[in-house]
């Protein structure tokens, strides 16, 4: 395993982990979600699963999150996450292990970004794994997490949303309303016809941020080879050991089926 820092288009440092395969059968990029980081158990599990199947695997911290890259979380946007993904892939294109088409795997906002990338460059992507994915900014406003409370109204009126981090105990996540304004610019359904590569969707049945009914809207419009798995009793982020084992099993079988 090799860890290094590269620069994005804004001159900010991005922390990247490279796990090379001695007998490379593919290349995969794994991307965390909003406020996430490359060492989260589910992100590491995704990377390990691809690596066990002979892939060279790249995972990284976007800027404006709680990892090792530069920037502050309050400035996080879909645009900055997507640009960082593009910049990591552009940097990778000059490395000896780079190959196309490659595979993309993500979680939540990371899934949103890898799917936006795949719609923009479908010829570059061999397989797509958006877990717990955001489908559109519009649907994000309708998520169950915002129902029967004033979180959304308060965020818009004050310009800030605050919540405790589950992944980083003791950390309070403060995010500007401009994050939602930026997210509303994006919608996977607009160019879904370009997602002709194999796609694997996975979501927890207790997910209140990117619920199964949102995933089904995307799934039904996917034009190519596709699978959708709903994990019983799982929340938005897969943390429970049994859920991680189940998701890994699903992912491993899917990779094997689509490697040829």
Describe this structure as you would to a colleague.
With 260 residues, the protein is α/β, with parallel strands linked by helices. It has a single domain, classed as Alpha/Beta hydrolase fold, catalytic domain (Rossmann fold). It is 33% helix and 23% strand. It has helices at 41-52, 78-92, 109-120, 137-141, 151-158, 178-183, 212-221, 241-258; strands at 2-7, 13-19, 26-31, 55-60, 102-107, 125-131, 160-164, 172-176, 199-204, 226-231. The strands form two sheets. Strands 1-2-4-3-5-6-9-10 form an eight-stranded mixed sheet, with helices on both faces. A two-stranded antiparallel ribbon has the order 7-8. Helix 1 (41-52) runs parallel beside helix 8 (241-258). The longest helix is centred in the last third of the chain and has 18 residues, at 241-258. The radius of gyration is 17 Å and the shape is globular.
